[in-house]
Amino acid sequence: MGRIAVVPVILLSPLFVGGIALFLGAYHVSSPLVAKIMLSKILFMDIGDIPEKSIILNIRLPRIILSALVGMALSASGVTLQGIFRNPLVDPFILGLSAGAAFGCAICVAFVPEVPIQIAAFAFSLIATFITYTIARSQGEVSRLPLVLSGVVVSAFFTALVSIVKFLVDPHKLVSIVYWLMGSFSLSDWHSVSVAAVGITLGCLPLFLMRWRLNAMSMGEEEARALGVSVERDRLIFITAAALAVGAAVSVSGIIGWVGLMVPHLVRMTVGPDHRRLMPLSMAAGAAFMIFADTLARNCTTFDIPVGIITAITGAPFFIYLMKKGARESWGR
Amino acid sequence: MMNKRPLFIVIYFLLMVVAPGAGATTITIRDELSREVEVSLPVKRVVFISLYEFIPALQIWERVVGINRWAFDNTLLKRFAELKRMPPVGTGGEVNIEALLALRPDLVITWTYKPEVVDFMARKGLRVISVYPESIEELYEVLELCGRLFKKEGRVRKVRSYMDRLFDLIKFRVSGIPAEKRRKVLWLWGKPTTVTGCMGVQSDIIKLIGGINPAECIQAKYSDVSIEWIVAWDPDVIFIWGNARYGSHDLIGNSQWATIKAIKEGRVYKAPSWSNWSPRLPILALWMAKKTYPEAFSGISFTQLADDLYVKCFGIPFEGREFD
To answer: For chain B, what percent of residues have pLDDT higher than 70?
Structure first.
C-alpha cells in the first residue's frame, strides 16, 4: 500500500520541483510577479515588456524544461539498459554513447566550428552505438556480454580520439571542450528545448510503450522467448531508442553522469522491479532530480557549476545510504 | 733578440677566451613558479614557448632558435619572413623535448600552464623561465626582464614608451568622464556566459579605459555564470574574446539577451584574436576605449595611432582587418 501511495508523489514531482525552481535564480523576481508572468502566458494576458518576463519565460523556463527532458531520457535509458543487461551497474553510457558524443563535440570545436556542437555530438553518439552493436553482432547472436565488451572497446576508442583532438587543439579551444564534457544547462534556450524534445520523445516513447517486455527480458533470454518475446528484435529496438534519447540529451547538455545509473535504482527500491511502474516513475524521478540538481548548480554561488558535479555530489551519498538500507529488495530477491 | 711571436699568440688566445666572458654576467631570476633560475647574460640562443610577440618588438629574431607551434598561426608573426625558418618545439602543455634539446638553447621562456612540463624541461638540463603576467604592470615587468636577458634594455625602454603613450592617451581621454557616466563593460570568453572577474590583464584593461566591470565581484580571472547574472548586471557594452566560436550577431539575435542594454543598443563587439601578452595590448585597449566612450575619443584616428605603434614596435604597418 505504501508503494502505491508514493506513485502519484513521484509522478507529480517534476511539476512540483520545476514549479519551485521557477522562483529561484540570480535575478530577483518576486513570487507574485513569477506567478503573474506564468499566468499571463497561460491565459494570454499582456503584462508589457518587462525584463522579468524574459528571465522567467526565456531563461528559467526553457532551462527547467530542458533539464527535465534530459533527466527523463537518462533515467529511461538507464532502466532499459539495466533491464536488458540484467546488470545493476549499467548506465546509459555503456554503449559508447558518451565517448562518441564527446568526440563529436571535440572535432566540432577544434576543426569544424561552423557545425553546431549539438548536431556533431548527436551524430557521433549514434555512430558509436551503431559500431558497438555491429561489433557485438559479428559474434553471432547479439547477447549481453558481447554488447558490454564492445561498448567498452568503442568507449575506449572514442575516448582516445578525444584525447588526440585535445592534444592537437590550442589551449583556448580546449577549455570549450572541457566545459562541454562537464555537462551544463547554462546555454539552454527554447531552440535547444525543441531540438532535444524531438529526439528524446522519439526515443522515450518506444521505451515507455514496450516497458512490459523488459519484465520478460530481465528474467533471462530463454524465459523471455518462452513468453513470446522476440529477444533479438526487441533488444535492437530498445538499444536504438535508448541511444536516440541519450544522444539527443547529451547533444544539448554534455555528459551528465550518475542520473541514469542512480535514479532507476532509487525508484526500484521504492516501488519494486516491475517495469510497468518502474519506467514511467523513473522518467518522472529523473526529470525531478535533474531539475533539482540544475537549480542547485545555478543558485549555489555566482558561478554556474557544471551540473554533472552536482549530480555526483548529491546523488552518490544518498545512493550509498539507500544501498545500505535495502539494496536486496530492489531486484526482487 | 727574443722571439715575441709565441707570446703574442698566447695573449691573443687568452683574449679570445677571456674577452667574450668579460662582458658576460650571470643573474638569478625567480620565475612565476618561484623557481630560481641562473642565466648567463646576454642570452644568445632562446626558445620562446610564450611571449613570442616580444621577438619582433625586441628585434631579437637572430637569437631565437625555436618557437611554439601556435606562433605559426599568430597574425603578427606570420608577417615576418624569419618565422619560416623557426623550428616548432611543441606547446606550453606538450613540448617535444628532443627537438628542444637538439636546439641547445641557453634559455627557454614558457608559461605556467603546466608546471610539471616546466619541471620536466629543467630536469633535462634546460634553463627555463616560466611567466604568467596577470596585470599590465606584470606585463611590463616581464618585458623588462626580457630586456635584461637579451641586453636590450634600451629597446625595451622605447617599446614601453610607445605602449605608455597610448595608455596615457586613453587615461587622459577618460579622466574627464564623471563617475555617474561611467559605463558597465563586460568581457566574455569562450562561452557567452564566461565573464572576466576582478583579476587578469582583461580586468586591468576595463579599468584603464574607464569602464566598470559588473563582474568584479568574481574573485578570479574568469568564471562561468548563469545568464541571469548577466541580465541583472545589464552591461552597457559587451566585448567578446577573439577566439570565441560565437560573434556579436549570436547575442544580438538571442531573445534571452534582448533586455540587456548593450544588446538593445547594438554595442556588442568581437575583439581580434590577439594575445594580451604583447606590445599590441594598448591598441586593443584603445579600440575598446573608443567603442565604450566614442564621444571621448572623437577626433582620434584609431588606425593612425595603431599604425604608429606597429611601425615603431614591429617595423611593419598596421592592418586593421581583424577589428570589428
So the answer is: 92
For residue B258, list chain A residues with Cβ-Cβ distance below 8 A.
54, 58
Which ipTM was obtained for this model?
A: 0.71
Report the gap between the CA of A309 and the closest CA in chain B (Å): 14
Nearest CA in chain B to A62: B256
List, as ranges, residues 200-219 from B with C-beta within 8 Å of A.
Answer: 217-218
Q: Which of A86-100, A189-203, B61-75, B206-220 has the lowest mean pLDDT?
A: A86-100
User: Given this model, what pLDDT does residue B251 score?
Assistant: 94
User: What pLDDT score was predicted for residue B15?
Assistant: 42
User: How many whole angstroms from its chain centre is CA A242?
Assistant: 10
What CATH number should be reported for the domain whose range is B7-151?
3.40.50.1980
Burial of A62 (0-12, 13-18, 19+ CB in 10 A): buried
Query: Regarding predicted confidence, which is higher, B122 or A323?
Result: B122
Locate the chain A residue with the closest alpha carbon to B195.
A303
Residues B209, B175: Cα–Cα separation, whole Å: 9
- C-alpha cell at position B212: 566598470
**Nearest of A292, A293, A301 to residue A20 by alpha carbon:** A292
The shortest C-alpha distance from B190 to chain A (Å) reads 6
Cβ atoms of A185 and A63 within 8 Å: the answer is yes
Q: Which CATH superfamily is domain B177-323 in?
A: Nitrogenase molybdenum iron protein domain (3.40.50.1980)
Q: What is the pLDDT of residue A317?
A: 82
Write down the pLDDT at residue B7: 45
Q: How far apart are CA A146 and CA A232, in angstroms?
A: 13
Ranges for all domains in chain B classified under CATH 3.40.50.1980: 7-151, 177-323
CB contact under 8 A, A55 and B258: no
Q: What is the pLDDT of residues B81-117, one digit of tens each?
A: 999 999 999 888 778 888 888 899 999 999 998 888 8
Is the model more confident about B308 or about B5?
A: B308
Question: What is the rounded CA–CA span in Å between residue A183 and residue A311?
Answer: 10
According to DSSP, the β-strands at B25-30 and B36-41 are antiparallel
Interchain contact, B232 vs A26, CB within 8 Å: yes
CB contact under 8 A, A25 and B226: yes
Distance in angstroms (rounded) separating the CA atoms of residues B218 and B282: 25
Interface contacts (A, B; CB < 8 Å): 84
Contact A27 B94 (CB under 8 A): no
| SS3 at position B88 | strand
Structural contact between residues A250 and A196, judged by C-beta atoms closer than 8 angstroms: no
